[in-house]
TrEMBL record:
A Gene Ontology term for the protein's cellular component: bacterial-type flagellum basal body
Job of this protein: FliN is one of three proteins (FliG, FliN, FliM) that form the rotor-mounted switch complex (C ring), located at the base of the basal body. This complex interacts with the CheY and CheZ chemotaxis proteins, in addition to contacting components of the motor that determine the direction of flagellar rotation.
Name of the protein in its database record: Flagellar motor switch protein FliN
Annotated spans, Disordered: 1-43
Lipid metabolism listed as a keyword: no
Entries under InterPro entries matching the protein: FliN, FliN-like_C, FliN/MopA/SpaO, FliN_T3SS_HrcQb, SpoA-like_sf
């Protein structure tokens, strides 16, 4: 997990986008000014919409010595640290953002339903 204080989390983008979203103008209202802060934020947000984000769903983890890893063969079962039905962790670019449940999307694919969106935690700042 990355705790660099210079990075902005997804929650910060969502908050910024919600705060800078342009409300619909009432009938007869003058057109929005180009220097209006609510329209500037929206155009800045559009610049990040096409940036790829790697989404990872972790169903569990296991730790074992290399000797045991080398003995694994086809059909071997690795016991994970989670129980059946327990929530999976969902990461965006290696940052935990949510928890969810595994679901069947169609006959050949699985997906994850987000059941809990994690709130932004303050990142520690270096003081010196």
């Amino acid at each position: 997990m990355n705790s660099d204080s210079g990075h902005i989390g997804l929650e910060d983008f969502a908050t910024s986008a919600a705060a800078s979203a342009t409300p619909s103008a009432p009938a007869g209202a003058p057109p929005p000014d180009d220097k209006d802060p609510t329209t500037v934020g929206t155009s800045q947000m559009e610049a990040v919409y096409d940036i790829p984000v790697k989404i990872t769903a972790v169903i569990g983890t296991a730790t074992m010595p290399v000797s045991q890893l080398l003995r694994l063969g086809r059909g071997a079962v690795v016991e994970l640290n989670r129980k059946l039905g327990e929530a999976v962790d969902i990461y965006a670019n290696n940052r935990l953002i949510a928890r969810g449940e595994v679901v069947v999307v169609d006959d050949n694919h699985i997906g994850v339903t987000m059941t809990e969106i994690l709130s932004a935690s303050p990142t520690p700042t270096a003081q010196g």
